[in-house]
Amino acid sequence: MTRALVLTALDLEARGLARHLGLGLVSCSRWAQFRAGSTEIVAVGIGAGHLEARCGSVAKPDLVISAGVCGGLAPSLPPGALVIPEAVLAPDGARRATAVLPGLERRGTLVSTREMVTTPAAKARLHLTAGALAVDMESAEILDWAGARGWPAVIVRAVADPADRSLPHDLASAVDEDGRLHPLRAVRAALARPRAIPAALALRSGTEAALRNVAHVLAQIVAGPPGAGTTPRPQGL
Q: Which domains are assigned to the chain?
């Protein structure tokens, strides 16, 4: 068994992955934190802004995993498509390599940004300039944090919003910087702009597919034994 520390941005991601993996809530925690067996999931906020505060005293894991959803940049990636990159391009332009893990098939680059990339035009520009498959706001920070401790780290994410779809700004504003979703804000945003409801439903569907597929890979990583075969490709991709 691999002792894995799984880090997400949002409470929503942490809860979804925990549900799929059968992890229980750490009752004494003041944020979204789940644990069972050799796996621990912690939500560390937008841009991993609460990473040190929430994980600075964790026991040494065998592997750190940046997990959850990402935005698609490559037009070929549908909602739910796995992104397990060989490298991350940080906001400062530096390139960080992910760990080589036997049995985990990695490819391409993910880019981490300081701001949300919400429109098809912005995604197309970033795809062209960075040559990346997908975008998030946390993985570069998580790789740096793990690397400073000498801990291997990989990225297992999946596309929630593909390259040709906008991320509704009103819905994005319903999430606090610490990763907590406020459902009432999301409902108000939807009611204020009824035309945004189809986009919100599509994002929800994409997020559910993404978390299901990420959890599938996480289960394979944790269960091991490392070494045999390649990463399974979830059905429907």
A: 4-166+203-223 (3.40.50.1580)
